[in-house]
Design brief:
globular; 4-stranded mixed beta sheet; binds shikimate-3-phosphate; UDP-n-acetylglucosamine1-carboxyvinyl-transferase, Chain; alpha/beta
Length: 449
């Protein structure tokens, strides 16, 4: 399946709206979708995925895996994806460059995957991905034998040669990043012997769960220092599986905050994964005064999922802790919108990683809020937002190839006194293609402009 990559600028003007209502479904989780595709491609036999996320980032991973030899069939009406994989270490030599669009997760995970296989790969990305640091994943992978053939050592485009005889790794993560952890774990799958990855600050744990689910030889324990040690014995067969992808809390976050800040709202959001390494932003919202009720909880793909009811609430400021930053890294943008509508000071600690996301999100937050009349500043590694319960608006927000900047601006404009304009909403397709349809369905207003 090749999805259309939209290169045209698509500006919109958001009109203030009052009171959202209805019941909406959450799109499938992007992190789990990438991982399920990759692990399914490493099995011999049929893996069946229900409700794979349909988005540009996921298409990038699919196209790359097809180039590595996986057979991936998607039946769009039922949303069932069948994969016939190539086995651990069975990657074929791609015949052309692999283009990964905007997807940092595809880049980091696939570099990890190919690093321990006998293939040469040229990876390319869009202008945003081509600025993002890759040395954080390349440096540890060099220790197992990955070679960087291109002159560039830090950014895409990269020309890489995987190790013919990869050496087991023993690596303590320097940057708390699920993408780096997962890249090393994927590399370890094709390394004979035991590799150990040590995580000192918690990041999302989908790779660990899915490795177990697909039958990888993996052990996890907490060491004497209280750090997580992940040990993988490589070159062991994986078992093909059937799995159903739960809803992405990072996508649900936009409509959760939308309902909270738009007076008179009452919204049901279904199928929200509440894995604690992902849903911490909900706890922070509740501590800000958010009225969020969890309905029936159930399990999907080994993850806890819940439908939730969100009611418009008077919010107050909040302080997020340094060690929680990796678990809410994708939600800082939308939390900054909640903080702008809250009364009082909010302080987000340890936010420097935001500078190397799909755009410099720290700068994006400062620009978006300042232009919309909300006072905020950075102090050392922290971001401080001085909310006074309302947002003047009257700004134009530059989405800068970043889906989450565009969606956050939509929500900011929902309750602002004057219109907010977004210069280009096309990046939204990387993670949440029907975001604008849902926005209108529940009572949000916008028009092109
Ligand atoms: C992701 C991990 C996070 C997150 C990204 C998806 C993943 O990045 O920002 O959107 O799927 O592993 P890091 O944990 O690498 O910061």
């Amino acid at each position: 399946m090749i999805m259309k990559i939209n290169n045209k600028n698509n500006p919109v003007i958001i009109e203030p709206s009052h009171g959202l209502s209805g019941s909406i479904d959450t799109p499938s989780d992007k992190s789990i979708s990438h991982r399920a595709l990759i692990l399914g491609s490493l099995c011999l036999g049929e893996t069946k995925i229900h409700n794979l996320l349909t988005s540009e980032d996921i298409s990038s991973t699919i196209c790359a895996l097809v180039q590595f030899g996986a057979n991936i069939n998607i039946s769009e009406e039922q949303n069932i994806t069948k994969i016939y994989g190539i086995g651990i270490g069975g990657l074929l030599q791609p015949s052309k460059k692999i283009y990964l669009g905007n997807s940092g997760t595809s880049a980091r995970l696939l570099i990890g995957l190919m690093s321990s296989c006998d293939v040469c790969v040229e990876f390319e990305g869009d202008p945003s991905l081509s600025k993002r640091p890759m040395d954080r994943v390349l440096n540890p992978l060099k220790k197992i034998g990955l070679e960087i053939v291109s002159n560039k050592q830090e950014h895409l485009p990269l020309n890489l040669k995987g190790a013919v005889f990869p050496v087991p790794i023993n690596h303590k993560l320097v940057v708390p990043s699920a993408q780096i952890k997962s890249a090393l774990m994927l590399a370890a799958l094709n390394i004979k012997g035991r590799s150990t990855i040590i995580e000192t600050i918690k990041t999302r744990d989908h790779s660990e769960k899915l490795f177990e689910y697909f039958g990888a030889d993996i052990q996890i324990r907490m060491n004497d220092m209280g750090h997580k040690e992940i040990m993988i014995n490589g070159q062991k067969r994986l078992s093909p599986r059937e799995l159903d992808i739960p809803g992405d809390p990072s996508s649900a976050a936009f409509f959760i905050v939308a309902a909270l800040i738009s007076k008179g709202s009452k919204l049901r959001i279904k199928n929200v994964m509440i894995n604690p390494t992902r849903s911490l932003f909900i706890d922070y919202l509740i501590s800000m005064g958010a009225k969020i009720d969890f309905l029936d909880k159930y399990s999907k793909c080994g993850e806890e999922v819940s439908d939730i009811d969100v009611t418009a609430s008077d919010l107050k400021g909040v302080t997020t802790s340094l060690n929680d930053a990796p678990a809410i890294i994708d939600e800082f943008l939308i939390l900054s919108v909640a903080a702008a509508y809250a009364k009082g000071e909010s302080k987000f600690c340890g936010v420097s990683e935001l500078k190397v996301k799909e755009s410099d999100r720290l700068e994006a937050i400062i620009n978006m809020l300042t232009a919309s009349g909300v006072k905020c500043e950075t102090k050392d590694d922290d971001l401080i937002i001085y909310g006074n319960g309302e947002v003047p608006g009257g700004s134009t927000i530059n989405s800068n190839y970043d889906h989450r900047v565009a969606m956050s601006a939509f929500i900011l404009g929902l309750g602002s006194k004057s219109q907010i304009r977004i210069d280009d909403v096309s990046p939204i397709a990387t993670s949440f293609p029907n975001f604008m349809e849902i926005y209108q369905e529940i009572g949000g207003n916008f028009h092109s402009g």
